[in-house]
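Q: How would the structure tokens look for this protein?
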Amino acid sequence: MRILKKRNIKNLYFGIFFYSLSGMLVSFFLPFFLKQEGLNILEIGVLFTIGIAVGDLVMSLFFANIQKKIKLKTGLYISAFFSFFYSFILYLFPTSIGIIASKISGEVGDITSKISLDVTSQHNIHKKKHLDVSYFLLIITSFAMLIGLFLAVLLIKIVGFTFSFLIFALLAIPSFFYYKQIDERTRFKPKPRFSNLKLGENLKLIIASEMLYRLALGTSFALVVTFLITDKYSAGINWIAYLFGGLYLSILLSTFFVRKRVENYNLIKSSIIGMFILFLSAVAVIISTNIYFVLGAMVLEGIGASVWDPAARALCWKNTPEEIREKTSGYSMGIRKLVTAIGPLLGGFLVAYLGILAPFYFKAVIALGSIGIYFYLLKITR
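A: Here is the predicted structure in token form.
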């Protein structure tokens, strides 16, 4: 059984690598493509929010019912298919309808992937290995993103955006082969009713703090960063790769230094430290005077993410009773996707009416609020 579980986790790692790699072009370069097409930040934010919101609705009304009856492995297959469709639809239809359809497929694939990943991981790891698996997942996805960012720039310059969408769609195909090797028969329910889900106070606070920061991140990530570097600093597409490459390289390298320290430290205190570094990264963008300051801020954000994300994930797993793993994963994913849908529109609105730095002020305030939640959690757990 132990060998089987290790093999399951190994195949899951490889599948997630190609899944993450395939999504990089659309996730980080689509705003640049749309800006070149003449759309402003608020128009792009509206298109993104419509796509994400409809994708969440499709997931809730249709795929949730399917997933109640399928294996986790089948859920991973579904996520791989939509990862392929995420870029392929833009290859076929690089229009407003194609953008919305792409975001819908990306949303359905992302929800299915994260629920399946979350629950498959929990069912195949020992309770003392939660933090280890959480860190390995962060390392693998960061490595895939790092490769994907620079590969995207290279392909865009050689073959243009259209064929780059096709190539990145094809990169999702290896995920199917690795997911096929997973021996997992557990079923899951990603859309439980809240009344049937009894969450402890600690778990509610952990989920709330994560949701708040995910909202702040959604308002200030790829869309806003693209307009920040092109409008404020007159930088080109290479800087998208440099900035986000700096972020994920920082995550990749810093995880090797902080992993054991977090493992031997209180998870709540580690979450506080990580969130404080994320607060500092937002402040660094606000006070930046040139694009190199922004690059430094992204590196700082990578360090903060490498401390906060695995600690917060392990903290959530640790406080989730075994009998409600599937329900908790579906519930938290539903709320996470709700705030993700709001993010692009809110970010576009903040920029359009308050200026390009407004999302980073918002992010700094939310980070402080999350730190307050963690301190309260620390207090009540003593």
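The chain has one domain: 2-180+198-381.

The first helix runs from residue 2 to 22.

Upvote if useful.
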